[in-house]
Amino acid sequence: MTEMRATSAFCTIVPPHLLEQLARHEDPEVHHSARHSLALDAEHRDCRRLAIRSVVVPKPTLQPADSPQRTLYDARHHQGLPGIEVRAEGDRPSTDASVNRAYDGLGATFDFYLKAYGRHSVDGAGLPLHASVHYGEGYDNAFWNGSEMVFGDGDGKTFKDFTIPLEVIGHELTHGVTQYSANLTYDGQSGALNESVSDVFGSLIKQHALRQSAHDADWLIGEGLLETGVHGRALRSMKAPGTAYDDPRLGKDPQPAHMDHYVRTTDDNGGVHLNSGIPNHAFYLLATALGGYAWERAGRIWYDTLTGGKLPAGADFATFAQVTATAAQARYGDGEEKRAVLAAWAGVGVTPASHSSSVPHQSAAPEGAESAPQG
């Protein structure tokens, strides 16, 4: 048996600063849902901190099945998890669209990792996939809690049902992949990398399902999640961080795309949802430079980096960049792929650690960095 450390992080798709913004909105339904969501997230986050443990992952004695084992639950707007079982693997579709979307999204994520990289489920050993829908009353989030996916219905005014965007499902399940591989510490730059890796593979899972090339993809995270009337397209844009939304109730998307605008803050574990825009954009630059299907070469380099055993849990951007360049060279040699990796990181102002005279502490920010918005 092999032992690996479980992440203590509680990982949500909607960052706290957005919910804090909504919590001040004049519409009572909007601010009530946001405050309620923040309170639930804080409760789950505290529970995860108290539950730090070693997860023992048995080596499979048999080859894992090439098909998922999914179980869907309905929380029925309560907060107890997982809820009532409503659909198991192989069952006929439910009359509940949220159940069916979650079931299909779990399947698409399993299918992606198996077909693209030969990985069986999030742990690589066929871990059953569980998910609960209709969590809480108007809950404005979706999360991976270390063992299952949980989806809120949204408040119906700002956010729709969180099972709608496939990349949200892929994003959250990829936190499980990270948990069972590099287990990136959920703080500062390593935390931003944890979030970014989930955005990267969440987008690739959507692209894989739609058979989209890097140039045809929208590179949006949470596309279709915002309600009609909200000025925005998604929660984040990998193509153009900082442009996903600009709305009176949400504010303007604050994600940076370059180290010149790195955000120094103590909020959100050191700005993990904000500064993830920098490595997100680096991956976009790499994928579009290489062209074709992004999961084939660009995604393979990122996957090798995440699962290859050479990435420290506390890696900063410079270290991650160095390991991606090493991974590109190991798989493709000193060719187009490695040059494209180095150019992508240069495009966001990150110098790989092996080429820099000193590696900054993983949560440090450059001089003159912007402060995070206080809600």
Shape: globular
**Beginning-to-end CA distance, first to last residue:** 45 Å
> What's the order of the H and E elements?
EEHHEEEHEEEHHEEEEEHHHHHE
Tell me the strand percentage band: 5-15%
The fold-level CATH name of the largest domain is Neutral Protease, domain 2
Mean pLDDT: 89
Strand neighbour order, sheet with most strands:
2-7-8-6-4-5
Number of domains: 2
For the CA atoms, what is the radius of gyration? 19 Å
Largest sheet: 6 strands, mixed
Low-confidence stretches: 1-8, 48-58, 355-375
By DSSP, the count of extended strands is 14
By DSSP (H or I, 4+ residues per run), the number of helices equals 10
Which structural class fits the helix and strand makeup?
A: alpha/beta
Q: Please bin the fraction of helical residues.
A: 25-40%
Query: What is the CATH superfamily label of the largest domain?
Result: Neutral Protease Domain 2
What is the annotated CATH architecture of the largest domain? Answer: Orthogonal Bundle
CATH class placement of the largest domain: Mainly Alpha
